[in-house]
Structures are given as C-alpha cells and as structure tokens.
Amino acid sequence: MNSIIWSTSTTFFILLLWENIQVRELSYAMISCVSPLALSRLGRASVLRAAKCGMRRVSSQSEASSRSSHTTTQSRTILTEEQRRFLDSALRVNQAGELAATLIYTAQTPPVVKAHPHLRPLMKHMYDQEAGHFKTFNELLAKHRIRPTAMYPVWQAAATILGWTTGVMGREAAMACTEAVETEIGDHYNGQVREMFKWMQDLQEKGEELDPELKVLIDDIKRIRDEELEHLDYAVENDAKEAQPYQPLTDVIRYGCKGAIWISERI
Ligand SMILES: [Fe+2]
Ligand SMILES: [Fe+2]
C-alpha cells in the first residue's frame, strides 16, 4: 500500500515539475519576442523548444500570432554572448551606483541643509534625479532578469557612511564628494555609450539596424550621464575645491568608486 502511495506521489510530483518547466520556458519565449536582451539570454535551440511548447498549449488562433511574433523576433538584433555579458555587468553596476548615489544624498542632506538652508532645493533636485536613475535601472534589471550585485548590502552601508561623513565635514566636503563620484560615474557611463555606439556602427556596416529597445537604452544612459555631469558642475560651483583636505578626500572617494565598479562588474 505504501509503495503504491509512494509511486503515485512521485509520478504526480514529476508531472508537476515538468508542467512548471514547460510554462516557464513558454514565458521566456514570450518575453524574448519583445526583448532582444532576453532573447540573447537563451540559445536559439531553447527559444525554438519553448516556442514549440507554447504552440502545443494554445489555440489555433494564438498559434498563428505566436508564429508571427517569432518571425518578427528573428529580424531583431541578437546580441553575442560577449555583448550580453557586457550589458549584464554594465546594468548591474549602474543600478548599484544609483543606489549608492541616492543613499549618499539621503545621508548628506540633513547636516548640509541644517548649516546651509539655501542648499535645500539643490540637494533635493540632485536626490530626485538620482532616485529617477535608480528607478530606471531597477526596471531594466527586472525586465532583463539581471541579478543585482551580491555586494548590494555592503554598498548600502558604505554609501550611507560616506554621505553622512562628508555631510558632517561640511558643505565643501559634501560637494567634493559629489565632484569625485560624478567624475568616475561620468567616465563609466561614457565608456558604455562608446561601446554601444561601436555595436551600432558594426551593424550599420553590415546593413542592419540596432534594435529600437537598445537605442532607447543608449539614449537613457546618455541622458543620465548628462545629469551626473550637471551634478559635477553644481558641486564645483558650490566650492567643492575648497574642501579640506581636498586632494586626499577626493582621491579616496575616486579610488573607492573605481573599486566598487570593478567588484560590481564581477559579482
Ligand atoms: Fe545618478
Ligand atoms: Fe549624480
């Protein structure tokens, strides 16, 4: 009796697992129809297998639409493994950087604004833009199923400590922190834009076009880079270079940013 119950349960469990795998593959295939990044995440064989699963499950009407979606996908940009890895790590670093930026301003604002109330609108403006950047990269990570950096909690603590320390040191030190961070982040975003422009040029030489979704991503990164460079200008206008001691402080922050980028690209 026990063996009958055991074998029935095992069979039921295997069937349930198989159903789950098929449903998940179908949803991957459906995502891949709208996202070149998601498509590149899967091998062609996997996409075709998932599409077949989908076709078994849907009515004849949705079968037709599934086939036409698949045909559309084939005309889109398919990223190479190397390009996909580049985008994965770039977006992961961007999200971590924007998380840190929001926490730096959150911690800096109370002491800076208490001593210099006229800076409240500027601090709020920069915070609001950082919160917008963070939201953009959170959405991109979720959409393309990219994992956040494993260092997320460490960067949370480090950014809060950095923001609070420079805020307490005074307006000039807080602005020097912004100057140092934005110098590194501006370079970092520029590198990403340059790389994706190369992809565009390579495709144009082959007579192909970059996927519109990737064009939107490049435009987003360019806009965010420009806003970061605006923050750098505000910091310099607000006496970042008067911070004491300016050089060691900005050097430590810049090396810290480089290190955090290097680590977040990898883990
Ligand atoms: Fe930002
Ligand atoms: Fe910024």
Q: What series of H and E elements makes up the topology? A: HHHHHHHHHH
Structural class: mainly alpha
Question: Would you tell me which CATH topology of one domain applies?
Answer: Ferritin
Query: β content, as a range?
Result: under 5%
Distance between the termini: 50 Å
User: How many strands appear in the DSSP assignment?
Assistant: 0
Instruction: Give the overall average pLDDT.
Output: 77
Uncertain regions: pLDDT < 50 for 5+ in a row?
A: 4-36, 38-75
Question: Ligands in the structure?
Answer: fe (ii) ion
Q: Give me the CATH architecture of one domain, please.
A: Up-down Bundle
Overall helicity: over 70%
Report the radius of gyration as a whole number of Å: 24 Å
Largest sheet: none
* Number of separate helices: 10
Please write the CATH class name of one domain: Mainly Alpha
Dominant shape: elongated
Give a brief rundown of this model.
This protein is mostly helical and 267 residues long. Helices cover 84% and strands 0% of the residues.
Structural descriptors:
Ferritin; 10 helices; mainly alpha; 267 residues
Describe the model.
The protein is an all-alpha fold and 267 residues long. The protein has a domain at 81-265: Ferritin (Up-down Bundle). 84% of the residues lie in helices and 0% in strands. The protein has helices at 2-32, 36-41, 44-57, 60-74, 81-115, 120-143, 152-169, 171-205, 212-237, 246-266. The radius of gyration is 24 Å and the shape is elongated. Mean pLDDT is 77; it is low at 4-36 and 38-75. Residues 98, 101, 130, 133, 224, 228 line the site of one fe (ii) ion (FE2). Its EC number is 1.14.99.60. Pathway: Cofactor biosynthesis; ubiquinone biosynthesis. This is 5-demethoxyubiquinone hydroxylase, mitochondrial. Component of a multi-subunit COQ enzyme complex, composed of at least COQ3, COQ4, COQ5, COQ6, COQ7 and COQ9.
